[in-house]
Amino acid sequence: MAISELGYIVLRSAKIDQWRHFAEQVVGMQAIDGPDGALYLKMDRRNHRFLILPGAEERYVASGWLLRDKADFDGFRTRLEAAGVPLTNGSREDSALRKVQDFFSFSDPAGNRHEAGWGPISNFQPFVSPIGTGRFVTGELGLGHTVLPALNIEETLEFWTTVMGFEASDSLLQPITEDLTVQLYFLHCRNRRQHSLALAQMPSDVGCVHLMVEFADFDDVGRALDRQQANNVPLAMTLGKHVNDDMISFYMMTPGKFIIELGWGAPPKEWENEIFFETTLGSHWGHKWVLQDPDFQLD
Questions:
Q1: CA–CA separation, 290 vs 115, rounded Å?
Q2: pTM (2 decimals)?
Q3: Fewer CB under 10 Å: which end of the chain, C or N?
Q4: 105-132 pLDDT per residue, tens
Q5: Are 41 and 34 in contact (CB under 8 A)?
Q6: Backbone angles phi, psi at 286, to 5 degrees
């Protein structure tokens, strides 16, 4: 009854048209219209990996975690109920919107909202990028990873490792600027991605620090960097290579006022051969913080 993957994310935005342009023309995803003004972003054979709901302001609404089957889903619900975690059942309409059989929502001790569901629904048609981008690394590794704010980071880490069943992969004291160093923990679930979740001891006005998606071809990272510059999207961190997962990536702002990391090259882990470690350096090279203007408008 362990979580298998980060299956989807839910956002709320007043900038649906900007998200459509950003997703298709900068990142290279497919944008698909959903009901009642919603927007789906497709990255693979699943119906979507991003669900963007229209709203009055920018908000990272929820991380959508998937269980392998109904038995795991029911067992996971029972596990959280036994731990005293308040749960809210998803409606039939909201399940249909998310394209899952069923889900429930809950919050972690840091106040981050999550959804646990099972049984993705899709026609499983191939992903076709409107600008010719190659495939994203998803499948059993999930959509990528999410980094969430957790000022009470030790309490939140305890929740994720004892209640949620995740395991800590590594930790880092990350220098962001000369005046800011952030404690992070990186955690993995029931797959071989080095981390599907990270907790950062810092606030976020929109509910997310950053989100990562991974290209299968390194050249797609370079082409995306060209498109970031051509579209005047604020760069947050320069191209670099991480220590913990060996990801080569860069970071830029999204219309949702959080950062997205576009990367390549993180090898899947064989967890029986791994141990927890603390890194004293976030990146082997690059990843210089350069963000100056997080508020921007796409033409």
A1: 33
A2: 0.96
A3: C
A4: 999 999 999 999 999 999 999 999 999 9
A5: no
A6: 70, -150
